[in-house]
Amino acid sequence: MLRQYELVERVKEYDPDADEAMLNRAYVYTVQKHGTQIRASGDPYFSHPVEVAGLMTDLKLDQETIATALLHDTVEDTLATIEDIEANFGPEVARLVDGVTKLSKIEQMPENERAAENLRKFLLAMSEDIRVLLVKLGDRLHNMRTLHFIKKPEKRQRIARETMDIYAPLAERVGMYEYMREMQLLAFEQLEPEAYHTITKRLSQLREQDGGQVDAIALAMKQALAEAGLQVEVSGREKHPYSIWRKMAERHVSFEQVTDIMAFRVLTDDENDCYRALGVLHRTWQFLPGKFKDYISTPKTNGYRSLHTSLMYENSMRVEVQIRTREMHRLNEFGFAAHWAYKQGNRPDGQVGWLRDLIEIVDASHDAEELLEHTRMAIYQDRIFAFTPKGGLFQLPKGATPVDFAFAVHTDLGAQAVGAKINGRHMPLRTPLANGDVVEIIKGSSAEPQLSWLGYVVTGKARAAIRRAVRLKERAEVAGIGQKLFDEIAGRVPARIGKKAIKKALERLDMEEDDDLYYAIGAAEIEDRDVMEALVPGCTEELPETPEWGKRHISIRGLTPGVAYTFAECCHPIPGDRIVGTRRTGEKVEVHTIECHELASGIDSDWLDLSWGKRAA
Fold first, then answer.
1. Which of 15, 19, 43, 77 is catalytic?
2. How far apart are CA 556 and CA 546, in angstroms?
3. CATH tag for 381-456 (out of 3.40.50.970, 3.10.20.30, 1.25.40.340, 3.30.465.10)
4. Using one digit for the tens of pLDDT, what is the confidence trace for 199-248?
5. Class of domain 4-190
6. Which of 58, 76, 363, 367 is catalytic?
7. What is the reported pLDDT for 350?
8. Which of 353, 392, 436 minimizes the C-alpha distance to 173?
9. Residue 190 has pLDDT above 70, yes or no
10. Residue 77 catalytic?
11. Catalytic residue at 269?
């Protein structure tokens, strides 16, 4: 664990003007607040925030971020408050600490709802200041390093799954590949322990058999490049067990059948040398068609730049090679996100459009399951590139369709999509896109998202937007019916009903908007008597107190006059729904919606063709 003076010295090395007194106060504050708390490892609890602060100094982050790392658990796990933090360390640190802190007062929620609400708060804070994400990633990385000390296996599994699904992909998205790889490896060890240990053992055996083959290949590459006049660094490594396991799962092969276990990196002085080195390697060894990727001319959304290729080495051995400049390597591997935040300001900009997509998902998701599903979809998928006709570049998950593309360009474009041209040809909206496709979306001014699109869209942003649009449409239809019913109810109270009376009624019913009331009426969530009483208190006192009074009396066309009927509890039909009646001998007619699942299961009774009539006075 870093001592107090060691931490301050680290910060002063890259930021001589840092507020030494503030950093010392933050260190002492976290030690005092956590006091005698102990972690599962047996270490003092304050060792954790100190280690997270140390990780942040590796990224050369500013003093406010270091202080946030030191303080990030004080509000959640001690008696400290955000107000205390602000009084001692200022509003900026307080805001960052609040962004990293889990929500309180939600302990009674189910586990998935707690996770979703905490994720929602974190994503919103992250969208305002990227430093919230950097501290959270440092926090998660250190927690993963000590995960094996937790005794409950189900808790270890939950944390590992959350890390694999959310935090490792987030680290990748902001260019923190060192964090991503270590998180994946540690999570893989918990989630698939047998596979982890088997692959680790096989790699060890392979290392003994090959006798330094990685070093030999790296030397051969360096010599070939030197002969071409290129002064480069070449390094090689085995891929880590999780990466190999993914290849085995994706290709449905055994460990022995995975031929590209080794990866090499070539570092050059400038960009032109990257392409020269690529040419030399392709002339010296056979390259594998379809495996070349140019992330220098077309960087990833997180700013990652490199050339990727695969070569066939001796004995049909495949090796992967990444070629980049030293500066690209520094940004790719060691804190591009921190460098970008420092240079660009802390609020995310156009380089992370995916982050804005996440915020749209937060706004559009209806419940915990949707939020977690859409977020995982938005941050954890392999990508393809597609272009607008004007050359705009968008990265999408593999399997994405023109509908996904349209929503990626703009939510309004997705909502109005009626067709698409892919590479100049009219194609169905459900067509999967390929790398490099040029996509033109054909829109209609009166078009709207279709429920059927959910059958083939793959991006979280598209799914969230479609579901939200469908819900709003359904709500608007019900509210429209409710507004007509409200006019009839208002006509039966002994007073003229204006805007002021409606406003008072909303207050009495604890509702905010007129539409909330109309929807409640249309959906039969509130009775007529309650609406009348809210409009004019006391007006229903002289009315008969019978169970049927105040309920909706709407005539049904298609029934013999005088025949009794009830509304089915299974589907709750409301005016405007298409309806049918079912009747068994000697029983009332039961009114169902035409889509009712009970009808689909085959009710043993006569069916009657019904429709809505006028409301009885």
1. 77
2. 22
3. 3.10.20.30
4. 998 888 887 777 678 889 999 999 999 999 999 999 998 888 998 888 88
5. mainly alpha
6. 76
7. 44
8. 353
9. yes
10. yes
11. no
